[in-house]
Write a structure and sequence with these properties.
heterodimer; A: alpha/beta; TIM Barrel; three-stranded parallel beta sheet; B: 65 residues; mainly beta; Ubiquitin-like (UB roll); 1 helix; 5 strands
């Protein structure tokens, strides 16, 4: 697998920690998927119930890399402040940077994203920017210091899969040496396999697993798909063609009219 | 002194951020703090004074995607 800021991951599956029916089911999903990265967030804590402390204990026991996000942030200032708070709480330089620009699609505000990415990389963060497949934006994120890009497959939580395969293939081709992660929009394991077959280095998903009828089984299914897609990409897939080409040799065929 | 803690109006005797955290039951909890929208690192909580109507945010790990 490719390095993510110097960290080599054992597979290409990153899994979210939200929306599971219970903490126990979330843990089981992580176990069966063997996902090596868990995305987490920060929210207001109550001094009475301390729910966040219990959650953190569960995540620590998973033994995975933790990728805090800035989900729900709509401005550069909000995202940068949240990133600082996350770095202190989670003890990692990694930050999944989200600056949301549109409510219906949760599309990133790419202008704010680039600005926030520059501020955070200058401050020592290792930024995983949630972006679109726009190549110009991708270039500016790299100029800002990002060493990983995370284009969306489709709007967050939609389960639509890869909405723009052409754009994503272009991104892969334009930035062959940059670790690329499909973040958001996946609904089925076949879509994860498709992303990996296209040469993406990892996929990040949450809802597709957490909202499945059997989250742990779906997590395992995604793990299989990611593995298959990764193997396929490394095996150099054949070029598709418009017309048929017989796979059985014609030479030596009996004359049986 | 009146101020807002995580969006709730409270009355407190604490005059520093570290004293407020202790008073409100956070103690040694793993939290990050902000005052009036500015991040306050744990190392500065002791010297972070509080004023009337300050907006305090105390955040902790939570599920995320």
């Amino acid at each position: 697998m490719r390095d993510f800021y110097g960290t080599t991951l054992k597979n290409g599956l990153m899994l979210g920690t939200a929306q599971y029916p219970s903490p126990a089911i979330m843990v089981e999903a992580f176990k069966r998927s063997a996902a090596c990265v868990a995305t987490v967030s920060l929210r207001r804590e109550s001094g009475n119930d301390r729910a966040g402390q219990d959650f953190w204990a569960i995540i620590r026991d998973l033994g995975v890399h933790v990728l805090p996000n800035t989900a729900g942030c709509h401005s550069v200032k909000e995202a940068v402040t949240t990133a600082h708070m996350a770095r202190e709480v989670f003890g990692t330089k990694w930050i999944k940077l989200e600056v949301i620009g549109e409510e219906d699609t949760l599309q990133p505000d790419v202008f704010g994203l680039v600005e926030a990415a520059r501020i955070l990389t200058d401050d020592g963060f290792q930024v995983f920017p949630y972006t679109t497949e726009d190549l110009v934006v991708a270039g500016k994120l790299l100029d800002a210091g990002c060493e990983v890009l995370m284009p969306w497959g489709a709007p967050i939580g939609s389960g639509l899969g890869l909405n723009n395969p052409y754009g994503l293939k272009s991104m892969r081709a334009h930035f062959p040496d940059v670790p690329l992660v499909i973040d958001a929009g996946l609904g089925l394991p076949s879509q994860a396999a498709q992303a990996m077959e296209m040469g993406f280095d990892a996929v990040l998903l949450n809802t597709a697993v957490a909202k499945a009828g059997d989250p742990a089984a779906m997590a395992e299914a995604f793990a299989g798909a990611v593995h298959a897609g990764h193997l396929a990409a490394a095996a150099d897939p054949m070029e598709p063609r418009d017309m048929a080409a017989p796979s059985t040799p014609v030479l030596g065929k009996a004359f049986l009219l | 002194m009146k101020l807002q803690l995580n969006g709730e109006a409270i009355e407190t005797d604490a005059n520093t951020l570290v004293a407020l955290l202790e008073e409100q039951g956070f103690g040694d909890a793993k939290v990050a703090t902000a005052v009036n929208g500015q991040f306050v690192p744990a190392t500065l909580r002791e010297t972070q004074s509080l004023n009337e109507n300050d907006l305090i945010e105390v955040l902790a790990p939570m599920q995320g995607g």
